[in-house]
Design a protein that fits this description.
The chain is mainly beta. It has 10 helices and 36 strands. The longest helix is centred in the first third of the chain and has 23 residues, at 2-24.
Amino acid sequence: MLRNKKSLVKVVLMGLLASTNVIWGGTVVHAEEPQQFLLDEMVVTATRTPVQEFKANANISVVTRKKIEQNHYSNVQDALRDIPGVTIAGYGNTGEVYSSNSLLLNGSDKVVVLIDGVRANINGSASTYGKMATSELSNMDAIERIEVLKSSASTLYGADAAGGVINIITRKPLENSTSTKLAAAKGSFGKEQYNLNHRGSADGFYWEIAGQKKISGDFKDGWGRTIPEHLNSENNMYKIGKRFSEDADLSITYQTYKTEYLRPTGGWNTIANNIAKNRFNTGEKDNSKLNVVYKQKISKKYSNQFAFYRNEHQADEITWNSSLTTIQPYIYHYSALGFSDQITIRPDDRHTIVGGIEWYKDKVDHYRTSASSEYSDKETKNTAIFINDEFALTNTWNLSYGVRYNDDSNYGSKWLPSVVLGNTPNERLNYYIGYKKFFVAPYPSQLYGQYGTPDLNPETGTAIEGGINYRFDPTFVASMHVFRRDMKDTIAYNSGIKKYENSGEENASGFDVQLRKAFAKNLTANVGYTYTYIKPTDPNRNPNSDGRIPRSAWNIGVNYEIEKFNANLVARGVIGKQGGKATTYGDNTSSEAADYHTYWVFDAGVNYKVNKAINIYAKCNNIFDRLYTEQRACLLPETGTSWYSAPGRSYELGMEYTF
């Protein structure tokens, strides 16, 4: 069965690549020439100021509003899976019920998540460090685009942005009009989803209300095994704003996320035992985010943005012990409070200076995993001053340099410089090279939690990167990026002593190659390849974080549009995901194990625009019902302790009505 599926995947992939090669060679004739100008998106995350994506001098990718509408992503984390250099390691179907779904940029989980440029992280524990913000942001109707910066951005966005930044940008208000959208979907694994989005503006005021109800149940993996997982969630957003003039704007955004859930526990062997004894971990969450942002253009040369935020994460679980004989409550209550003030100065045509001050407090309100591991009111404060200057050396050469002074209440102060030199000699070519430093303090659960070590050292390091964009013509763009990241005092969990420890120096390097091509006005494709190597810090572990991160990964997408019809196909390939050492996770060297170290997953979707108001769509994920895991792979997934099956083939049918 598996061999037949694997052969079928290969045939489809070879056909896709073969047809792409034919088209690329110019043998397909279309009545109308494509007029795509790829990599012309305006982005803000690379420099905190608007810049054309092609000239950003950074490894940045954008999930556009159009792509969100065509692909109908379940949440932000689902959308990130299609970005080269992004690694998602999920434990289940939705990514919303488990606290430890990993999200990594260029192999690093030190990621800062922003909503409209305002920090969304809650650094209380590993379960909230840049991960929950993306999986629980599931109401995609409220999102305009997602910008992913895959490189250290510690000077501009925080000392802990070692791996990069994810900036989720919400939709802009309409001009003196209103719009309402109703949507409903039903799918495999008991999925039901209902959305309401209303937005508009009048007399200088603007507003948006976005509500979502989502339900899902047990799912089946590629072998048809039932994995228990239930979700019943509500995701709401309320935004109100006032334009005092063309140069002054105040907005208040409040988001809530509530859910009741049942989650899988342990690898398949443990899950099967739970099913047999009908004992599962259940829980509920009650999270919220409040953002207040005031923007003002003071003059032609000066503009200012002040932001205040409060983020809360509350999760309570009833958890069975490993022998499934007793239950105990788990409590994860964290909060973050902060503000920032940014000023942008353009003294002349050659300089753009961005500077500001930031302050935030991460607090553990209540943490409990056992009677002997319970604490509360632990907090960390962070104060920073930063400045960055984009300097046009010539008409083509650009120098961006800056420094952040960062003071951590537990670990003192650090100076974090950065410098990036880029050149855009013409409209077809851009290349750059950069050097940056970062500093990541341990978060409270690593210090005080069940596996905490109070005397941990902070992680410090440097990152070097470079890249090139080349536009063969308006319809074909190629990009390549390389990076090296060196980090001292890497913090890692040691399963032998069951404690966090400073495991030594981590050396990571890699590259990605991305191709984007518009074959015709209605046919586009993209291909991305990523290679990552992280030297193991322990001889008892494999490279790439003991096999969590694949050596090679492919992202392939094809999109076809004609009149009212749109179809898309997405392929994700994982090559050489080694898995853990044999002593811990089973034999990873046999030919049987290799089948789970390399796999392809194909998703497809179609949209039919009945009229201006009604859109009908259908999706099929994991078309070939592939058995795979985003966690560490091991020889026998039916017994392997580290195996968490990903969902098998699933379907979804939905309808949207806009008026």
